[in-house]
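Fill in residues.
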């Protein structure tokens, strides 16, 4: 499709807001992809980009991803994302965060920010001094909020179980071999749920302390990071990096199922079709890893409690089953099916 802008990732984004605050040195881009379902929600990333064009590409892609993720999670929110361009010293001063907060506020609630890579809860407290359009703030007793990681892990585990049911006809992961990439926040939660149900785990992480600790707690086996992708197992669960599936890695896979929480797992859309052609059942990343955003959004909207968060997270398996069923009927791969469903939900199908 031709686009009116010469950015390959421009996809009828509603707003691309360039910010420069001379006094603090802030340079940021706020991208609003769609507000069709509600205010555009998505985190702020603090990152050092080699070229300004890379920051624009990141903002365009990530904000579209948030539109899809929020829509598929059934949330009354659109998709947006912001990137703050770190300088060589990567300094994040209170003045810079304040200027970013004012920029978010200037959009009048059309964009709601939260933490992403390089931004902490502490940073969000600074941003919140300038604008109310912030989520991911610390919670007080009994309120919904706080670390989204455990909610993401629960959604990934429930989605993984749904994949096992769909592909292997089993109601439990007991006795199954799960290969986990990553031993961080999301992976740890998935590993604990799976171990509690009796799964056999192989785990790899570039951080030896983390992987050893997680293997100790779960009775799992530590595997070299270079071996985890080609391991023979019942499920491969990627919970570390994006862009891991390409023609070469897909050819080396020895699993019938991929179900993990890492964002942007497919290097290109063709890789969804490659997995499908190999008969590997894929759980689209932005559908299975929506538990965290469900928690963050319920916090921001103030429309529910822990019970509602849990109910919304428990909806993830049903959505995945729907995608796999449509994939079986249409012959299209699950990633393509999910994209088409998300586009319909945001009024662009
Ligand atoms: P984290 O930083 O806690 O964990 C990531 C882990 O991956 C770290 O332990 C790191 O050492 C490891 N890692 C990095 N490179 C690796 C490699 N080459 N091989 C093996 N391990 C490697 O992050 P997280 O919050 O657990 O997030 C994990 C993934 O899930 C990311 O892709 C993130 O974008 C995605 N995600 C997270 C959430 C959330 O709520 N935290 C929500 C949605 C998606």
């Amino acid at each position: 499709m031709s686009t009116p802008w010469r950015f390959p990732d421009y996809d009828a984004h509603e707003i691309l807001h360039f910010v420069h605050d001379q006094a603090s040195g802030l340079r940021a881009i706020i991208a609003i992809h769609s507000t069709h379902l509600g205010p555009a929600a998505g985190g702020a990333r603090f990152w050092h980009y080699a070229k300004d064009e890379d920051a624009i590409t990141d903002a365009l892609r990530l904000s579209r991803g948030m539109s899809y993720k929020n829509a598929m999670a059934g949330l009354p929110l659109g998709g947006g994302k912001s990137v703050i361009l770190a300088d060589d010293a990567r300094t994040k001063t209170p003045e810079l965060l304040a200027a970013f907060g004012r920029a978010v506020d200037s959009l009048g609630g059309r964009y709601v920010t939260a933490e992403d890579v390089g931004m902490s809860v502490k940073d969000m407290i600074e941003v919140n001094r300038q604008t109310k359009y912030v989520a991911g703030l610390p919670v007080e007793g009994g309120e919904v909020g706080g670390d989204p990681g455990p909610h993401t892990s629960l959604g990934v585990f429930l989605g993984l179980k749904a994949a096992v049911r769909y592909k292997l006809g089993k109601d439990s992961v007991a006795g199954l071999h799960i290969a986990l990439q990553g031993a961080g926040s999301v992976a740890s939660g998935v590993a604990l749920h799976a171990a509690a149900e009796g799964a056999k785990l192989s785990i790899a992480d570039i951080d030896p302390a983390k992987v050893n600790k997680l293997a100790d707690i779960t009775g799992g086996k530590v595997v070299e990071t270079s071996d985890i992708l080609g391991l023979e197992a019942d499920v491969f669960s990627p919970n570390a990096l994006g862009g891991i599936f390409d023609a070469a890695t897909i050819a080396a896979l020895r699993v019938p199922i991929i179900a993990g929480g890492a964002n942007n797992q497919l290097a290109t859309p063709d890789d969804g079709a490659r997995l499908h052609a190999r008969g590997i059942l894929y759980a689209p990343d932005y559908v299975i890893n929506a538990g965290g955003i469900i928690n963050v959004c319920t916090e921001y909207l103030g429309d529910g409690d822990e019970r509602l968060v849990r109910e919304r997270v428990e909806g993830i398996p049903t959505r995945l089953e729907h995608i796999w069923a449509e994939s079986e009927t249409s012959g299209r791969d699950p990633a393509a099916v999910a994209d088409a469903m998300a586009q319909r939900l945001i009024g662009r199908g």
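The pocket of nicotinamide-adenine-dinucleotide is lined by residues 148-149, 152, 181-187, 204-207, 210, 225, 239-242, 261-263, 289, 292 (CB under 6 Å).
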